[in-house]
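[09:14] KT: can someone run the structure on this one? pasting the chain below
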Amino acid sequence: MLRTSPAVPAEAGGGRPHGPASALPLGLRLAAADVRPPRVASLRVAGDTGTEHARWVIHGERLVDENPHIRVSLADVELPDGTTFTQYVFRMPRCVMVVVLDDPGSHILLMWRHRFIIDRWVWELPGGYVDDGEDGVAAAVREAEEETGWRPRDARFVLSYQPMIGNADFPQDLYLARGADQVRTPAADETAAVRWVPLDEAAAMIGSGDIAGAGTIIGVQHAMMLRAGVQPPGQ
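[09:31] RB: done, structure tokens below
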């Protein structure tokens, strides 16, 4: 996040943003003409009755690069005290993560896969992007089958969350499935291994770091709450 002096406002319209535009990675294209109108983000204080405590004004947002899975832009932001800065913003399509439990509800279906960005092997829930025109339940069943070879018998929506809310708009929906049938062998590039993991072992994997993804952590904790008889709020 690049800050500038409060006395130097961020440029709006088609002007050049305050930021390392010349240092953009090779292959990213800066389209200065793609400028969005000012937007306002609000911050609310815990316990507040709804009165906005502070507002962050977005003076403009310029496209850097995009493909079907991500849109990268630069936003000119002004804080309530007049401080301005330019920040990269990432916008990604909605995706689903799927908690698949066995019939007794004692084991959870996890995949062992390598995540090259952090260069680590981790256990994860199945999940992926929702296709155009596809509803969440269909996406959850499809992704679970494609990635693990197990087809959930049903799936229901649990909650939505944002895993990188500081600089990304990446809505993710968690679904719960009880019971599944093995219908295929997953492709080698999807996962290195698939296991029905006891819930206690899955919880321990969070502490050991063998589970690192936010969606999988949320999903395992949700399954633990269900086993303990705790009904999550809103369910």
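[09:33] KT: thanks! Residues 1-35 have pLDDT under 50 and may be disordered.
[09:34] RB: yep, looked fine to me
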